[in-house]
């Protein structure tokens, strides 16, 4: 693997860590510090996803600008997306278990638990995180590969238009 590809993958991991820190702060605020008993977090979730998508696109764009191959660009997005998914799931697991008394007051969790066969709210929440871990990690990994590939296409293009050459004569 060429040096530029390794650097692109490392940058993808750095981007993932930065995005994860921001998402973790948002998850902590929304679920613990300023919890809501209703399910009214649609706007913050949409904004978070748009931010993730933009950063995965940026990973490919920067990789292309630094000379990474198409494979390096795609791997940078794949690694970044999968890391964001896995780390975000881990954040939910910590928040949901450490602050269970607060999280358990959310209406969607109350309703879900009531219709489940789980023996406790903790078991209900942790069982639900298994699917989230798989879907979020794999889904963001694949989406990261695609968005990084698209970003790589844009990154190969010059930022400013080429000067117009005058014809002799």
What does this structure look like?
The protein has 169 residues and is an all-alpha fold. It has one domain. Helix 1 runs antiparallel to helix 2 and helix 2 packs parallel to helix 6. It starts with a helix and ends in a 13-residue tail after the last helix.
What brief labels describe this structure?
single chain; 169 residues; mainly alpha; 6 helices; 78% helix; 0% strand
The whole-angstrom Rg is: 20 Å
Pattern of helices and strands: HHHHHH
- Residue stretches low in confidence (pLDDT < 50, at least 5 long) are none
Can you count the helices? Answer: 6
Please estimate the helix content: over 70%
> What is the total number of structural domains?
1
User: Which range does the strand content fall in?
Assistant: under 5%
Distance between the termini: 49 Å
- Sheet with the most strands? none
Mean pLDDT: 92
What is the global morphology? Answer: elongated
Strand element count: 0
Given helix and strand content, the structural type is mainly alpha
Summarize the structure.
The chain is mostly helical. The chain has one domain.
What is the element layout, followed by pairings?
Elements: H1 3-33, H2 42-65, H3 70-98, H4 100-103, H5 107-114, H6 121-156
Helix pairs in contact: 1-2, 1-3, 2-3, 2-6, 3-6
